[in-house]
Amino acid sequence: xxxxxxxxxxxxxxxxxxxxxxxxxxxxxxxxxxxxxxxxxxxxxxxxxxxxxxxxxxxxxxxxxxxxxxxxxxxxxxxxxxxxxxxxxxxxxxxxxxxxxxxxxxxxxxxxxxxxxxxxxxxxxxxxxxxxxxxxxxxxxxxxxxxxxxxxxxxxxxxxxxxxxxxxxxxxxxxxxxxxxxxxxxxxxxxxxxxxxxxxxxxxxxxxxxxxxxxxxxxxxxxxxxxxxxxxxxxxxxxxxxxxxxxxxxxxxxxxxxxxxxxxxxxxxxxxxxxxxxxxxxxxxxxxxxxxxxxxxxxxxxxxxxxxxxxxxxxxxxxxxxxxxxxxxxxxxxxxxxxxxxxxxxxxxxxxxxxxxxxxxxxxxxxxxxxxxxxxxxxxxxxxxxxxxxxxxxxxxxxxxx
Length: 402
Ligand code: PMP
Ligand code: GLU
Prior knowledge:
Number of domains: 2
Mean pLDDT: 96
Strand order of the largest sheet: 2-8-7-6-5-3-4
CATH topology of the largest domain: Aspartate Aminotransferase, domain 2
Number of helices: 13
Largest sheet: 7 strands, mixed
Structural class: alpha/beta
Bound molecules: 4'-deoxy-4'-aminopyridoxal-5'-phosphate, glutamic acid
CATH class of the largest domain: Alpha Beta
């Protein structure tokens, strides 16, 4: 071990989703034709009006430092977007813009979590939540869910997990990796309990625009319009990465009460300073310009979701819930555990995913990465042709197991 590396740094594991993506990219450079259901990244190009706003920012010389919490005009655009949609009365002082939603979550963890704190995280969870909590010296407490409960927590389960050390609950709706969406009533009940117990409810809404088949999405901020005091307990994380196919631009944001926003902003001023000035201009156009491209992308995701759900459910031994939102499906592949290939045993879904990558050249993320062994995550942010070919390859490889 390298001398002098902090205990904190040694506690961290790398992002398994990004690691798989790097491995697939390397295989492709080596000439292997891999179909990836791996990393969660829209395959669409960033819409043209947004790209043009970025180009214009460069031409206008908007290439210098901005306020570290983000420009006033982008923060106003974020407020307008939420105020219009959810009847909130947000002001730019409620917003901090950061380098992607992952960074926004990291900032929240830095500001809120420390030694002795417990943070509730429903499992399956997105990979970075527990790692960020652990990095701050706090303890993630997982609330286990599975297919039989539609991967949802409820207040009865939640009550049992709250102790006097509990600081916050991190909720992700629509959820990565399960695709579930909490409805208004479920959200209201969870919020009531969180408020009653004096906790923070951190809601990651990064997939809020990606809901299907008339499923209604409710932002937790919709409850604030009649009760501004709720901002004491609620923190929302969102960003432009997924909705606007802008993963590389790195813009995410937090919406919180002004006191917390000031602290987050101050902390950011001592770490990264402002997020990229050009990306901020592009994000402003994303939120305030035409939403036509989003409609087209959501329609395409819905078709792909129907396609992949249908194909996967035809496989004997696979159980699944059709996702209501996000661009992930999280089927149960546990019936393939303890099978073998050429005498080599497949003991878990990590091994199964490795086998599928090697044998079928199909990239899938094992449920272990999300705290749910036995499941596998497929991102359907890829073309219909890739979905058809990828599932065909997968089926053929599964047939070889005995
Ligand atoms: N939250 C969830 C649930 C995600 O899936 C992602 C995907 N990267 C993020 C946050 C982070 O998004 P960003 O790329 O904006 O950092
Ligand atoms: N959120 C994406 C995913 O889950 C990107 C990977 C990451 O940021 O770790 O695949």
